[in-house]
Amino acid sequence: MIAEFGLAALWLAAALAALQLLAGALALTPNGGRLAAVVRPAAVVQGLLCATAFAALIWLFAQTDLSVKLVAENSHSAKPLIYKLAGTWGNHEGSMLLWVTVMGLAGAAVALVERRLPEPTMLATLAGQAFVSLGFYAFLLFSSNPFTRLDPAPPEGNGLNPLLQDPGLAFHPPTLYLGYVGLSIAFSFAIGALITREVGPAFARAMRPWVLGAWIFLTLGITAGSYWAYYVLGWGGWWFWDPVENASLMPWLAATALLHSASVLAARDALRAWTVMLGVVAFSMSMVGTFLVRSGILTSVHAFAVDPKRGTFILALLAINIGSALALFGLRAGTVAEGERFSVKSREAALVFNNVMLSAILGIVLIGTLYPLVTEAMGEKVSVGPPYFNPVSAVFAVPMLLVLMVGPMLRWRRDWMARHKRAILVPLGLIAVSAVAFLFVGQIGLMPLIGLTLAPALAVASVLPLKHRKLRLVPLATWGMVVAHFGVAVALAGMACDSAFSRQHLIAARPGDTATVGPWTIRLARVSPVAGPNWTAMEGELEASYAGGAPVLLRPQSRNFWAPPQNTTVSALHTRWNGQLYTVMGDEVQGTQSEGGRWQLRLWWKPFVPLIWYGGGLIALGGLLALIGRVADDLRRIRVKAKVAYRREQQGRGGA
Amino acid sequence: MSDPQSPRAPRWALWLPLGLFLAFVVLVTLGLLKPASHDIPSKMIGQPLPAFDLPAASDGRPGLATRDFATGKPKLLNIFASWCIPCAVESPVLAELARQGVEIDGIAIRDHKPELAQFLARNGNPYTRIGADNVSAVQLAIGSSGVPESFVIDGRGTIRYQHIGDIRPEQVPMILAKLQEAAQ
Q: In angstroms, how far is CA B130 from the centroid of its own chain?
């Protein structure tokens, strides 16, 4: 019953999306004005219906209703409840339903709240939103129905991919989806603005909170995904330039650029066509990312989600949505009046530089991700990895970080470098000092050296905009900028420290053996079997002591899941203020009867590596502060406007 | 607002994003149409075996050298190790190949005699000769990056086929066909 109920809600939502598209489009024609009243309610009800369908699916997973195919294939009655719930979106169909649900709710929110834009632009925006949603509804209903029944119902389900049975997973995909979908709203705003040629500060202000919100979630999603890969995969690295990681990084890069260019458009009415273009590109990158991950066209760790048939469908959606948006851009951008001019030495110029560099990095990542496809089309197989991505993206990232040290202090429109002499000298001096210091330490590669040199200067430069200001009066949005830029410095320091100072040791140890890595002395005390709800494992007990101090206990596991059968390693970490000890226990190495087995142990000492994720968290926090600040400003402005309107009403419409 | 000297993007530039996007669509469509293949073509196919002369890895079998392959008869060269779990999984398949008359030579990677003896006692010994490669020198020279891997070597000592990972039971006919091909 519940499954049929959910399916019915989904069909109704799709029908309402069609209504929203038609009514929105017709309302823009000379005779269709009366239909305009339908559009906003349709968007709201559509969002509620989606939420209903998604709640039905969660219910089915919580109950482990095995007569539903999706549940039988991805769940298991013995699974802990949190993973039953996470199983709802830990598969293709469920995650697509989550996608349309978030999209529907976001559309409803736009329809309810946004009143600043001219009504035709709003109608075009909501019609655009419905157009994008319709594609996803078609995808769900025709090729990946999450509510399909299975007859007869199997006695037990298949279980969830063990790699995904991790608390991080429960939140990683929803976080990324919130980001992707937020960008879809920005996309709809861009479409609406292009159709009605209303590209101006009002459009940027309406779009900005959605971009900010999306960007916060993308930042969190990438940070969490990176930490997940770090401790679940047990490879000791935090970024692998895997196609899936790139797929999440590209929308983030585009959104970061969009965020900054939208600020320029909102404050100075400049960069009109460029901002609209980025609005289209940011969502395109989300869809391209989804396509690359789901179609299996590139090999990656997310191979669990792969199905070529779905790839064709997503590609068709992609071609229709993005193709028509870019065609619209080609048609209309030429007639969008050009924005305000500005000098080369101005905050606008610094932000343009930031945008160009971010776009260049985006291009580099996109080319690197697609390059194996290009060569395969020409008959040769290659894989592209860190030796390409690291230096080539650094070529653009380093100048961007340098400009970041001054940019936030520049004035809009025109500024004089002489005014900033001291503010520029501080970071420059710091760069020189740390470069010399780290060269003195020696034995550091070029890339980590650059990172270590830039990080302290960037950290100091990022708080300089607060100088000579009453901290209590600094707007929240400025605080957000400072925190986010400081987060970039923190993350950069973590990355550089990891690649400059990490120590690794790989051994085969018998219980009782001792090994050292960095300042740590580690003894394998014993290996004993342990069991969980749906797995059994061999657990090593490691006594690790830092520089001869009191030992801490770490328990890495080599874990065997039995539904579905799969072997994974569970790493054990110990975090100190100055870094992280990372231990992984692999398989047993068969030994002779007299001596007993040896166990593969991989030990890493990673100084200051947690800074990477603290930095990511700070960047997201900065975004959150800015978002709160902007929304509060908007609300205040709306209230003032209402008050003014009310007074006019009182005065008998005198001065209007 | 519109400055006369302002550099304006030419009209065609506005269509550039669409053009790039269409190129992307064409590229991935081609990629989707082509059946996915996960084989990695070996650079070593058609190359003669590199020169090596390995000492015996176990007391029961002689060591292995390049000249042992110039017998006029194709052989299967199996790269394995006692510490490798998939190698143990693969052993019944190798036994089946040996039973069908395939001559199998082994190279044990970074192994110890007692542990190897125990491995062979537990999983059977399909090998005619077993060479000990304690520093992975030969393994790297013939382009193998892991264990287990198997090579079909023809009677003149030329590599004809590289199989990465364990040979699964359903792949036995394929391996036999490769050996047949190498015999011609």
A: 18
Determine the pLDDT at residue A307. 64
Q: Identify the residue whose tokens are 């700070």.
A: A618
Low-confidence ranges of chain B (pLDDT < 50): 1-7
Got the DSSP string for A195-229? HHT--SHHHHHHHHHHHHHHHHHHHHHHHHHHHHH
φ, ψ for residue A442, nearest 5 deg: 75, 175
CB contact at 8 A, A167 and A305: no
Q: What is the pLDDT of residues A283-316, one digit of tens each?
A: 999 988 888 877 767 665 455 455 667 778 888 8
Residue with tokens 């926090």: A621
pLDDT at A653: 55
Residue B2 lies in a domain: no
Query: Does B34 reside within a domain?
Result: no
- By CB atoms closer than 10 A (0-12, 13-18, 19+), residue A301 is middle
Task: Please give the single-letter amino acid code of residue B14.
Answer: L
DSSP code for A547: T
| Closest Cα in chain A to B10 | A334
Give the pairing of strands A503-509 and A572-576.
unpaired
ipTM of the complex: 0.76
- What pLDDT is recorded for position B129? 93
Q: Positive or negative, the Cα torsion across A97, A111, A274, A636?
A: negative
Bridge partners, residue A545, by sequence: A521
Task: Say which CATH number the domain at B92 has.
Answer: 3.40.30.10
Q: Which residue, B26, B126, B123, B129, is CA-closest to B71? A: B129
Residue with tokens 């999984």: B89
B20 located within any domain? no
| Short-list A97, A122, A96, CA closest to A43 | A122
Q: Which of A376, A380, A222 has the alpha carbon at shortest distance from A297? A: A376
Helix (H) / strand (E) element for A530: namely strand A520-531
Q: Torsion angle of alpha carbons A574, A575, A581, A586, nearest 10°?
A: 40
Smallest CA-to-CA distance from A464 within A405, A403, A401, A418 is with A405
Per-residue HEC secondary structure of A338-369 comes to CCCCCCCCCHHHHHHHHHHHHHHHHHHHHHHH
pLDDT in tens, A163-208: 666 676 677 778 888 898 889 999 999 999 988 888 888 889 889 9
Is the bond leading into A152 cis (omega within 30 degrees of zero)?
A: yes
Distance of residue B83 Cα from the nearest chain A Cα, in angstroms? 5
Nearest chain B residue to A337 by CA distance is B2
| A vs B: CB pairs below 8 A | 81
The residue with tokens 């550089």 is: A496
What residue spans of A34-91 are helical by DSSP H? 36-63, 69-74, 81-87
Residues of chain A contacting B, Cβ within 8 Å = 273, 277, 280-281, 284, 288, 291, 295-297, 299, 308, 311-312, 315, 318-319, 322-323, 326-327, 329-330, 333-334, 337-341, 370, 373-374, 376-377, 381, 508, 587, 589-593
Inter-residue contact A202 to A116 (CB < 8 Å): yes
Residues of the domain holding B143: 53-183
Conformational region of residue B108, where left means phi above 0, alpha means psi within -120 to 50, and beta covers everything else: beta
Cα–Cα distances in angstroms (integers) from residue A551 to residues A520, A524, A544, A548, in the given order: 10, 12, 5, 8
Q: Do B40 and A381 touch (CB under 8 A)?
A: yes
Q: Residue length, chain B? A: 184
Would you put residue B14 in left (φ > 0), alpha (ψ -120 to 50) or beta?
alpha
The total number of structural domains that make up chain B = 1
Query: What's the pTM?
Result: 0.81
Identify the segments of chain A with pLDDT beneath 50: 301, 304, 654-656
Any A CB within 8 A of B1 CB = yes
